[in-house]
Every structure is written in C-alpha cells, then in structure tokens.
Amino acid sequence: MHMIVEENRAGRALSDMPNYIEQNIDGILADILADYKKERAIDRADIYNEPDKKEVIAILKNLLSIVYPGFFREKIYKIYHVDHTVSMLIEDVVFHLNKQIMVVMRQTRGNEAGEAALERYAQETTVAFMRTIPKVREYLDTDLQAAYDGDPAAKSKDEIILSYPGIYAVTVFRLAHELFLLGVPLLPRMMTEYAHGRTGIDIHPGAVIGRYFFIDHGTGIVIGETTEIGDHVRLYQGVTLGALSTRGGQNLRGKKRHPTIGDNVTIYSGASILGGNTVIEEGVVIGGNAFITESIRKGTKVSVKSPELVFYVNGEDGAKMPDRAE
User: Fold this and answer.
1) 53-67 and 82-109 are packed helices; what angle lies between their axes, rounded to 10 degrees?
2) What CATH number corresponds to the domain at position 84?
3) What gap in Å lies between CA 93 and CA 56, rounded to an integer?
4) Is the N or C terminus of the chain more exposed, i.e. has fewer CB atoms within 10 Å?
C-alpha cells in the first residue's frame, strides 16, 4: 500500500512539470520543414504527381489474375463466368495503368506537348501493353514447362504456379519487360523490385530472356539490365549476371554491361558471370561458385577445383577422418 501511494505521488509530480516534448515539438517541425526547402532529390513532396506504389502493386496483382485466371482470381466476387471476371479485371487495370503512365510521363519528361497529347500517349501505350498479354502468357507457358521438366521435386504445374518464387519473379519480369519496351519509365522497375522484395530474385526489366527459362530455388539471383539470355536456360540460386565494373556510373548508361547467355546453358549456384563482352555460348555448363569474366566456347563445362578440406580430430591438425561406424 505504501508503495502505491509513493507511485501516485511521483505521477502527480510528473504531471505538474512542463512537458518537454510539447516544448520542443514546434522547433522540430520548423527544422524539418526548413530542411525540405534545400531542393535535394529527396525533398520532392508533390504526392499527386508521383507514381503510387500501392496502386502499381494492385495493378500487378490484377495482371497476375489475368495471366493465371484460375489461380490468382479474387474469390470474393460472386460472378464466376470467366468472361465477366476477366472483363472487370481488364477494365480495372486499363483505368489505373493509364493513370499511372500519365503520372510518370509527366514527372520524368514534362508536359511540354500539352495535356491532350500526354493523355493520348498514355492511352495508346496502355492499349499496346494490354495487347502483349497473349504473348506474355505464351512465354510463361514455356517457362512453366521448363520448371516442371527440370525439377523432380515438382508434383504438378499447379504447385509451381502457386508456390515457386522463380515462376513468380519471371512472370512479373515478363510483364514489366513489355512496359519497358514501350518506353514507360519507372513503373517496370517498381514492378520487378516488388518481385525482388518478395522472392529475393532481382531481374531488371530491360533484360532480354528467351523461352523455357527456369530459375530453381532462386534466392540471390541478379540479372542486369543489358543481359541477354537464350532459350532453355537454367539458373540456380545465387547466380549473378552482372557488370564487370560500374565505376563509370551514368557514363555507362545505354552500353552493353552484362553478359550474353546462349541457348541450353545451365549455371549452378553461386556462379558470377560479368561483363558486356562476355558470351557464354550454347550448351555450356558452369559449375557452382565459378567467377567468369571472359567468353566460354560452345559445349564447354566449367568447374571450380575443389578446395582442400582440413579435418581436426581430437585436436590433431590434418588428421584423417575416421571411417564411419557401420
């Protein structure tokens, strides 16, 4: 009881004191608002002329429902006829994508041609993109087949669509790549980076990737902007298809910085293949943890020499491991 009384007295004493936070909150606000006026890249505060990340993600989710109509469809709707469902999804995507294309075009390229021209461009680009969806689905069907054929752990194609990070990342890439080809800024990268965050697979939307592309496991894969990948290529986790050097910064923009991978190439986990002049020709197999900065001829198998293992048994350095007990 005595303790409770003391706590109440302390509480009353504190409540009678001037609140330190209230005394300083106006100063904090003034400091931050003044800092916003330094005209740095991070100071932009025009939220109505910035792409909406949540809206872009919502567009992407609806696109997945269109690409895979039986797998990602919103089940709360009472309309089950596929024509009606897809019609609603397409209308939603078209409306919001057109809006976001207008925003990013206005932000990155200005509006010198006028609002009517900008609106016309956004509408034409939106329609052109939506018309690529059958082609995207055709490529994804080959990717799905490659995943099923290449992974003995896959029990069904449904399992791959619903649970494999590789097929998810490739799906997002193929959609974003079409927007990239149409010259839409920002939005393709926002899409692939969302997939990167979900899967750990980083594919730049500018990369060119052929049919029957299979990413197994996938975590840690990096595929750079100017990478070119042929048909029937398989990558395992931790593979990097990157630039040999980025010290040139913006001076390297538009130049071939990433490798070219031919048809029927397999690259095992942890391998790094770097450089815009590096060409991995058809049928090459690259072993795990290889570091490659030069071209590899057709049909070659590349492996890293196994490191020497050193065992410590009962404190003795270099001792031979005893045979396992039967």
Assistant:
1) 140
2) 1.10.3130.10
3) 10
4) C
> Is 151 in the same domain as 127?
yes
The mean pLDDT of 314-324, rounded to a whole number, is 60
Taking the C-alpha atoms of residue 19 and residue 36, their distance in angstroms, rounded to an integer, is: 27
User: Are residues 146 and 269 both part of a single domain?
Assistant: no
Which residue, chain included where needed, has tokens 């024509």?
83
d(CA 315, CA 310): 12
CATH number, domain containing residue 242: 2.160.10.10
Confidence class of residue 80 from pLDDT cuts 50, 70 and 90? low
Q: Which of 157, 179, 200 is the last residue of a domain?
A: 200
Asked if 188 and 205 touch (Cβ cutoff 8 Å), the reply is yes
pTM above 0.85, yes or no: no
pLDDT at 111: 74
The DSSP-derived string for 207-275 is -EE-SS-EEES-TT-EE-TT-EE-SS-EEETT-EEE-S--TTGGGGTTS--S-EE-TT-EE-TT-EEE-
- Whether residue 33 lies inside any domain: the answer is no
Q: Are residues 191 and 293 in the same domain?
A: no
Among 295, 242, 244, CA closest to 265: 295
pLDDT 10s digits, 44-62: 666 667 789 999 999 999 9
Q: Which residue has the tokens 């029927």?
A: 264
- Tell me if 286 is assigned to some domain: yes
- Structural domain for 253, as ranges: 207-326
Helix-helix angle 187-199:53-67, to 10 degrees: 80
Q: Which residues pair with 291 in a beta bridge?
A: 272
Residues 52 and 195 in one domain: yes
**Token pair listed for 75:** 């089940």
Contacts of 107 (CB under 8 A, 6+ apart): 49, 50, 51, 186
Task: Indicate if 105 and 121 belong to the same structural domain.
Answer: yes
Residues 6+ apart with CB under 8 A from 192: 169, 172, 173, 176, 202, 203, 204, 205
Number of structural domains (the chain) is 2
- Burial grade of 259 (CB within 10 A; 0-12, 13-18, 19 or more): buried
